[in-house]
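are you around this afternoon, could really use another pair of eyes. what follows is a protein written twice so to speak, once as letters and once as structure tokens for the fold. i want to understand how the tokens follow from the sequence so walk me through it. anything you notice is useful, everything is just below.
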Amino acid sequence: MAQSKPINEVFSYLSWVHAVSGATGSVIAMSAFYPLETVRSRLQLESPERRKAISTWAVLRQLVDEEGFRTLYRGIVPVLESLCISNFVYFYTFHSLKALRASSGVGQSALADLLLGSLAGVVNVLSTTPFWVVNTRLKMKGLGHRVKDNTAHYDNLLDGLVYIWRTEGVKGLWAGMLPSLLLVVNPAIQFMAYESLKRRLVTDSKNASAATFFAIGAMAKALATVLTYPLQLIQTKLRHGNTDEGLNLPPGINMIQMLLVILKKQGAAGLFRGMEAKLLQTVLTAALMFMTYEKIARFVTGLLLRNKK
């Protein structure tokens, strides 16, 4: 029995509850704030000369005026599909590891949460990067006159995976994986901050308000985003498989080379281009996601416990 306990922790109902709750919360939150994600992608991938608006709201107005309202939701379906898969994997892995830690008698701490979050992030990156490569490209579909467009042969997630596999191989599907692996620190910091703040501020999680979880999720994500944004920008460019016309980077460029070129041509500000939109989008999305996740997980866990009695 002792040997089967770790397996029981990994394949427990609670791990599934957390995974489904996290995936559902992320889809609901991204659906609500997707236009901000569109702005973030355009600012990161289009040249500064093309998109000179100084505020997120100004860029939103520009996009609607130039391309119509529908452009704000370009590529939303593959993004939601990828996000659902990614968050399911992350939440399942994180909470399974957390349950294993608890079963071994190790206490909770910020450092332990950071380690578990990093491990969950590595599993997530290795298993879901191809989905993000496809949806990053699909979000820019039809903009070949501004950025190199290689999405003419596919218009959904599955077709994109098959096409990139055939034309670019494994390397193409896992493009940008190095910064993605480095960026596991982003959700790790987020979960560390979230769990730490929740332990300090929430004395009774069963009766805590939705606003409390929203605020804690927002603070945790803001910290993680500010600390890791330059890597996120480079990750987006590498996943897209092209560069904006202002940089003129050669094919096959690596993360360090791209970092140096951005610094040389655009300065330090170039590494933080689009961060306002990213902060708005990720903070609001993460806050709504955590709030929804906590409510769903609490409701389903309550049902499970009630059925056991």
Q: What stands out?
A: The CA atoms of residues 155 and 291 lie 32 Å apart. The longest helix spans residues 275-308. The mean pLDDT is 82.
